[in-house]
Specification:
Subcellular location (chain A): Cell membrane
Strand content of chain B: under 5%
CATH superfamily of the largest domain in chain B: MetI-like
Largest sheet of chain B: none
Transmembrane segments (chain A): 21-41, 82-106, 118-138, 144-161, 200-227, 247-269
Pfam family, one (chain A): BPD_transp_1
Oligomer: heterodimer
CATH architecture of the largest domain in chain B: Orthogonal Bundle
CATH topology of chain A: MetI-like fold
CATH class of chain A: Mainly Alpha
Structural class of chain B: mainly alpha
Membrane topology (chain A): Multi-pass membrane protein
Shape of chain A: elongated
Structural class of chain A: mainly alpha
Distance between the termini of chain A: 22 Å
Keywords (chain A): Cell membrane, Membrane, Peptide transport, Protein transport, Transmembrane, Transmembrane helix, Transport
Strand content of chain A: under 5%
CATH architecture of chain A: Orthogonal Bundle
Radius of gyration of chain B: 24 Å
Radius of gyration of chain A: 22 Å
CATH class of the largest domain in chain B: Mainly Alpha
Number of domains of chain A: 1
């Protein structure tokens, strides 16, 4: 019995292109802000200014200032770049690892398959957040620790789906015919396996990035992730929470940014699946 | 159909591997502690002002920190195999006692959250699935997509700001009285219900669209009879299987939510143990959670077999 896969016959896939397009538009918006804000409103995200403590938005920083007079525009853009970069790196490396091990396990079968599945199940038993937390205690550089920890968490899903898909395809007549005609494994991977795997990778990648961003923010929020004064979404929220009465908008900014980013990723993932 | 013993054997080897993995990770964590480990642990015990070379030396001798790494790893695994988790290097109490103390509080919270999510999620999902495409179905899609984009810590933050600070109805943090349960349990439950409602909805929609369901209606069963006889049992397997998944989400949620609401549970303790580099505590806690996951999934496997004894088809992806 599979744990993560719900093997009920689902109703015929409803295509929801609007969901995917809305998600892509939201993501483009977030990305544009993260990349363009430092160009349009250049400011050092760490520079404090006592004259601007919790100041209202002005021309230099349309999002206002935080409790130390730092530009919230610059901090938010920097925090988004950090989260998105770690998430992208973790998704890329976990996809590479998961697909490679998955194809290998399905292709070789036997004890390779059993060993790989067992290792994946052992990782699956450790809640992802704890794994990231432990790795962050081992590896001293926090972004690097997040990258390694998140890769260890995210590769399992890629492995499981790749293994299931590939073992189904390898038994299909198309691959059998290609093999009989003498085509090598690279040809079979490129012509038979990759076209089936690619759309799945996009969905998993969007879900994985959402998981990564959530975990980074959650650990930052409980003060075991990034260290101040690094701008990070979760850290910004916990820093601005005590000033909620004086400047509610300052707290709303990182909250809204996190929500929009995650919503965009979830919509991109959902549009391809449900 | 896979024989029962083989399934249990597989789960057992999974449990052994989980223990090995946890042992390896926590040992690496021990080795990676910056500075002199003996000094760090002595500082954790006596406070940073009261540490001197003598105290550090005493700690070093007591914990055998001067041995080579490989020998230490051997002893480490041997202790683990005998289920000897050692004592917390900070409080000095046996890890087992500490965990037993905190687990109770966490289980109460997790149980309350799970019960609440089961009251909200599956019923809404079943209603939506019976009328796939109706207004409830569409609303549920929007609400659950939005809820899934709110991480649990953010949900906690929003509830604290709205209910505790703005309205002043409930305390933001604390433990001991029933009112303290409401906010943390609701935070966890909303996240869980957002997903379980979708799972229940998809399963129910599939069952409601199936030929046997149509046949049941055709032979004159009322909607209630149909749901009880042919609906609930068929979506039961999916929901119970999903319960195993929820455990992982619940553990992650509990770690963060306990830290936010200062709930004196296992997640709170774990964050502190990681902060203070209390490796035996981390090892015991993570091992317990990992083995708990394996045990729960074994139970889920067995329950799914009991609900639907037909077994899966040949195309089943082995867990």
């Amino acid at each position: 019995m599979s744990i993560t896969q719900v093997d009920m016959p689902l109703p015929a896939a409803r295509v929801r292109p609007w969901a995917r397009w809305t998600g892509a538009a939201l993501l483009a918006l977030v990305l544009a802000f993260a990349l363009l804000a430092p160009v349009i409103f250049p400011a050092d995200p760490l520079r404090q200014s006592l004259r601007h403590i919790l100041a209202a938005p002005d021309a230099a920083s349309p999002l206002g200032y935080d409790h130390l007079g730092r530009s919230l525009t610059a901090r938010l853009a920097s925090a988004l770049r950090l989260s998105l970069m770690i998430a992208a790196a973790a998704v890329a490396s976990s996809a590479l690892l998961g697909v490679a091990v998955g194809v290998l396990a399905a292709w070789r079968g036997g004890w390779v398959d059993r060993a790989a599945s067992l290792v994946a199940d052992a990782f699956l038993a450790l809640p992802g957040l704890l794994l990231v937390l432990i790795v962050s205690a081992i590896v001293p550089v926090t972004p690097l620790a997040f990258w390694i920890g998140l890769t260890l968490v995210l590769w399992i899903e890629y492995f499981r789906l790749t293994r299931a898909t590939v073992s189904r395809l390898l038994a299909a007549p198309g691959v059998q015919a290609s093999r009989l005609l003498g085509f090598g494994p690279f040809y079979i991977f490129r012509r038979h396996l990759w076209p089936e795997l690619a759309p799945m990778l996009l969905t998993l990648g969007a879900f994985g990035a959402a998981t990564a961003i959530m975990m980074i923010a959650a650990l930052g929020f409980v003060s075991v992730g990034m260290r101040p004064p690094t701008p990070e979404l979760g850290l910004m929220m916990v820093e601005l929470l005590p000033y909620y009465r004086e400047a509610p908008m300052a707290l709303v900014i990182p909250v809204a940014a996190t929500f929009v980013t995650l919503l965009g990723l979830n919509l991109v993932a959902k549009g391809g699946r449900a | 159909m896979r024989p029962l013993t083989q399934a249990i054997l597989y789960r057992a080897s999974q449990a052994v591997l989980v223990a090995l993995l946890v042992g390896m990770l926590t040992f690496l964590m021990m080795q990676a502690l910056p500075g002199d480990m003996a000094f760090r642990i002595a500082a954790g015990r006596y406070g940073y002002d009261a540490v001197n070379a003598e105290a550090a030396e005493a700690v070093r001798r007591e914990l055998g920190l001067d041995r080579p790494a490989l020998a230490a790893f051997g002893t480490w695994l041997w202790d683990l195999m005998r289920l000897d988790f050692g004592t917390s290097v900070i409080s000095g109490a046996p890890v087992m006692d500490e965990i037993r103390h905190q687990l109770g509080a966490s289980l109460q919270l997790a149980g309350a959250a799970l019960a609440l999510s089961f009251l909200i999620g599956p019923p809404v999902g079943i209603l939506a699935g019976l009328r796939a495409g109706g207004w409830l179905d569409r609303t549920l899609l929007v609400v659950s997509t939005a809820l899934r984009s709110v991480p649990q810590f953010l949900m906690g933050l929003i509830l604290i700001v709205l209910v505790s600070i703005q309205l002043g109805w409930l305390p933001a943090a604390g433990y001991g009285r029933p009112v303290h349960f409401v906010l943390p349990a609701l935070t966890l439950a909303l996240g869980l219900a957002a997903v379980s409602a979708r799972v229940a909805r998809d399963a129910m929609a599939a069952v409601a669209a199936s030929p046997y369901y149509a046949f049941g209606r055709w032979k004159g069963l009322s909607e209630g009879q149909l749901l009880r006889r042919h609906g609930l049992r068929n979506i039961g397997v999916t929901l119970v299987t999903y319960l195993g998944l929820q455990f992982a989400m619940l553990v992650e949620g509990v770690v963060v939510i306990e830290a936010i609401f200062s709930w004196p549970g296992i997640g709170h303790a774990l964050v502190h143990a990681i902060f203070g580099r209390d490796v035996p505590m981390v090892q015991g806690t993570v091992l317990l959670l990992g083995l708990g996951f394996v045990a729960l999934n074994t139970a889920v496997d067995l329950t799914a077999r009991w609900i639907d004894p037909r077994g899966r088809g040949a195309g089943e992806a082995r867990s």
